[in-house]
């Protein structure tokens, strides 16, 4: 019973996270874009998990917004992604051109990012949530009905 409740709680937490990601994506898509220029790229080791290193793409870019020059480092608004593939992160960085369009928060021009959250991540959050909810509810229904 405790396990079922825990699964249901994870399901609702995942739905909440999916909603936050979805909302962030829509917000970023509403921001105006300004030209920017990438001046630093690197792939860094971020953490070791189960004996394997994870790698993250990092970059810095300059852009003009609100009458001032700013430096940004966010690729996605909600943070960075990482992977166990260093070469995959390098390929990702190489695929971003030096001249980019930067999405800028119109009310806080120092807040910017290059891309909105991906649909893949949003769908994964919603999908896993529904799986957890379904299993949790299924356990309770099977036990009591």
Low-confidence stretches: none
Tally of individual helices: 3
Beta-strand fraction estimate: 25-35%
Structural class: alpha+beta
Taken together, the total number of domains comes to: 1
Descriptors:
145 residues, alpha+beta, 5-stranded antiparallel β-sheet, 5 strands, elongated
What does this 3D model show about the protein?
The structure is a single chain. With 145 residues, the chain is α+β, with helices and mostly antiparallel strands. The chain has one domain (2-144). Helix content is 44%, strand content 30%. It has three helices and five strands. The protein has helices at residues 2-30, 86-94, 119-144, and strands spanning 33-49, 52-65, 68-72, 99-104, 112-113. Strands 3-2-1-4-5 form a five-stranded antiparallel β-sheet. Helix 1 runs antiparallel to helix 3. It is elongated and about 65 Å long. 21% of the residues are buried. The model has no long low-confidence stretch (mean pLDDT 91).
Task: Tell me briefly what this model is.
The protein is an alpha+beta fold. It has helices spanning 2-30, 86-94, 119-144, and strands at 33-49, 52-65, 68-72, 99-104, 112-113. It is built from three helices and five strands, in the order αβββαββα.
